[in-house]
Design brief:
Distance between the termini: 175 Å
Oligomer: single chain
Number of strands: 0
Structural class: mainly alpha
Helix content: over 70%
Order of helices and strands: HH
Length: 157
């Protein structure tokens, strides 16, 4: 059982032969009671402080748990965003590659058409040159025949 200031104050001592001076014992017990009351108040204040500290610690631990959960969620979100961005970048690269391949194919097809058209134009030019040469040669031959006929007619005259 815990000793209280009242227990100390109300303590009665039996008187013995040549016992202690009663006033000194009473004064000492009064002093002990005062000190004991101070210690009890301090003890109570310390208990209150410990309880408050424990409550604050519990709140801090709760806040820490919330922060850790928030950090985990933030990390997961960041990972997910990074993963989605990477997938989107890969998709963009793939689409760009496909467009590039398609444009290259179209350019090759266009080049083949232009080359074919150029060949056709060269053939047409060669045919036109041959016709013009043939026409010129026949005109030259006619001129030569006419010159020869005109020279023979002048000689005959």
């Amino acid at each position: 059982m815990a000793l209280t200031p009242n227990d100390i104050h109300n303590k009665e001592f039996h008187r013995g032969f040549r016992g202690y001076a009663e006033n000194e014992v009473d004064e000492f017990l009064d002093e002990v009671v005062r000190e004991f009351e101070v210690l009890l108040r301090e003890r109570q204040e310390l208990r209150v402080q410990v309880e408050e500290s424990e409550q604050r610690l519990a709140r801090f631990q709760e806040v820490e748990e919330h922060l850790q959960r928030a950090l985990v969620v933030a990390q997961q979100t960041a990972d997910e965003v990074r993963h989605n961005a990477q997938r989107e970048a890969e998709l963009i690269v793939r689409e760009a590659q496909q467009r590039s391949d398609q444009m290259l194919d179209e350019a090759r097809t266009q080049l083949k058409l232009l080359e074919h058209d150029l060949l056709e134009r060269r053939r047409e030019l060669d045919v036109w040159k041959a016709r013009v040469r043939s026409l010129l040669e026949s005109e030259l031959a006619l001129l030569a025949d006419e010159s020869g006929s005109t020279a023979a007619a002048s000689r005959e005259e």
